[in-house]
């Protein structure tokens, strides 16, 4: 007989992304729900990875990642954000950002420690903190604009606060923190012992001439920060599950203690392939323009509906207010939209503690133009 299972995550079900993608497939809907591109990555990247495999680079790599990839990551961060991370002691290659965030939390959070999340937040943060035995402290981003409210963050800080998780460019709202906001965060944390986990997976998707304000740009902030990024987002390969963490040596050392016993190492040929592909900065430097064009195409089509468009400053997400279109709650509306209109979206309530509903849903525009056009034709009925 199976012993009684006392769940460590009693409130967790299947993620909304899996649920909506499943429903979209079942109903033949255009899937603008789960965030992933429906177009292929650069064939040169596939070539570089295949080449590594055929060259026999198929055994365990070093625990921290292959040196050429760590060197390439360190060089990119230095060029873009001006901070030098030592590739030997301060950069670790991870199995995607999801593993990086969990590992960082497990490395620093002791049972009973408080961790601040800014709601709405990506759905893995809260269960990650709970698995570490931490106490989740939820601070709302400003309703309507989703900008950080430093008075509220300040009020949430306590002697038991171990860390705060920040995500800019922000999933789901698409806001991008300004230089001034990052400085305010730096000043607020300066007198504390609080670590920052800076989820920067959308670092190369910022629009209208904005610059991504990486925590690496702010020397005092960087001293306390795990910077997390994901090649899945940057190179259109979400299924490869590869990313990295950059953090000061002492923090990286603790990170690696956990990392070596939850994944140990990450896919060798993909690491070598990425390292050679990164020699050309064009693909990530051109990403803002690539996605801005798709954002504009999608927004222009949505103007012809009764959805109210929220700003999309970065990421590959566009949020809309559904109030003028429907009286349904967000989640019910997304089910209805998928089933009856044939377009899948994600309710913003999925990024909050249970119960909060502001009548906003999220679309992903990382899609072929024809996919976006088809979705827009269907949405035009609204
Ligand atoms: N953080 C955020 C904000 C994300 O949107 C995602 C992508 N779903 C992740 C982390 C996880 O990235 P990865 O696929 O590399 O694990
Ligand atoms: N990051 C993507 C999103 O927010 C996908 C996440 C997932 O499938 N877990 O839609």
Plain-language structure description:
With 382 residues, the chain is α/β, with parallel strands linked by helices. The chain folds into 2 domains: 16-41 and 285-379, Aspartate Aminotransferase, domain 1 (Alpha-Beta Complex), CATH 3.90.1150; 45-280, Aspartate Aminotransferase, domain 2, CATH 3.40.640. 40% of the residues lie in helices and 15% in strands. The chain is built from 15 helices and 13 strands. It has helices at 16-27, 43-54, 67-81, 96-108, 125-131, 150-156, 179-189, 219-222, 231-234, 249-262, 268-277, 282-285, 287-302, 330-341, 369-379, and strands at 30-31, 91-94, 114-119, 135-140, 161-167, 195-199, 225-230, 243-246, 308-309, 317-321, 343-344, 346-347, 360-364. The strands form 3 sheets. Strands 2-8-7-6-5-3-4 form a 7-stranded mixed sheet, sandwiched between helices. Helix 2 crosses helix 11. The longest helix has 16 residues, at 287-302. The radius of gyration is 21 Å and the shape is globular. The model has no long low-confidence stretch (mean pLDDT 97). It binds 4'-deoxy-4'-aminopyridoxal-5'-phosphate and glutamine. Glutamine is lined by residues 15, 17, 34-35, 171. The site of 4'-deoxy-4'-aminopyridoxal-5'-phosphate (PMP) has 14 residues, from helix 4.
The CATH architecture term of the largest domain is 3-Layer(aba) Sandwich
Main beta-sheet annotation? 7 strands, mixed
Task: Give me the side-by-side strand order of the main sheet.
Answer: 2-8-7-6-5-3-4
The succession of helices and strands, N to C, reads HEHHEHEHEHEHEHEHEHHHHEEHEEEH
Distance between the termini: 53 Å
Bound molecules: 4'-deoxy-4'-aminopyridoxal-5'-phosphate, glutamine
CATH class division of the largest domain: Alpha Beta
**Rg measurement, Å:** 21 Å
Count of alpha/pi helices: 15
């Amino acid at each position: 007989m199976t012993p009684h299972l006392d769940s460590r995550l009693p409130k967790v079900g299947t993620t909304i992304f899996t649920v909506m993608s499943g429903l979209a497939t079942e109903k033949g809907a255009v899937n603008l729900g789960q965030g992933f591109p429906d177009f292929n990555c650069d064939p040169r990247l596939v070539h570089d990875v295949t080449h590594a495999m055929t060259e026999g680079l198929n055994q365990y790599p070093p625990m921290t990642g292959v040196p050429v990839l760590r060197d390439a990551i360190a060089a990119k961060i230095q060029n873009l954000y001006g901070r030098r991370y030592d590739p030997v002691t301060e950069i670790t290659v991870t199995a995607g950002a999801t593993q990086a965030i969990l590992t960082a939390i497990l490395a620093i959070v002791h049972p009973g420690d408080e961790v601040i999340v800014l709601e709405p937040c990506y759905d893995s943060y809260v269960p990650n903190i709970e698995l570490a035995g931490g106490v989740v402290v939820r601070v709302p981003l400003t309703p309507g604009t989703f900008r950080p409210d430093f008075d509220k963050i300040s009020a949430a800080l306590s002697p038991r606060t171990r860390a705060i998780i920040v995500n800019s460019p922000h999933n789901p709202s698409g806001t991008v923190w300004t230089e001034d906001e990052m400085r305010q965060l730096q000043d607020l944390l300066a007198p504390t012992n609080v670590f920052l986990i800076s989820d920067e997976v959308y670092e190369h998707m910022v629009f209208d001439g904005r610059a991504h304000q990486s925590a690496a740009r702010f020397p005092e902030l960087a001293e306390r920060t795990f910077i997390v990024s994901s090649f899945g987002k940057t190179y259109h390969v979400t299924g490869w599950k590869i990313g990295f963490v950059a953090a000061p040596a002492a923090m990286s050392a603790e990170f690696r203690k956990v990392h070596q016993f939850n994944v140990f190492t990450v896919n060798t040929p993909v690491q070598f392939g990425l390292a050679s592909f990164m020699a050309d900065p064009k693909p990530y430097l051109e990403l803002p323009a690539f996605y801005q064009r798709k954002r504009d195409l999608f927004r222009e089509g949505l103007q012809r509906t009764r959805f109210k468009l929220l700003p999309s400053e970065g990421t590959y997400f566009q949020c809309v207010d559904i109030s003028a279109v429907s009286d349904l709650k967000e989640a019910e509306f997304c089910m209805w939209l998928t089933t009856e209109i044939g377009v899948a979206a994600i309710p913003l309530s999925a990024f909050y503690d249970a119960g909060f509903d502001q009548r906003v849903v999220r679309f992903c525009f990382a899609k072929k133009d024809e996919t976006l056009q088809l979705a827009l034709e269907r949405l035009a009925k609204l």
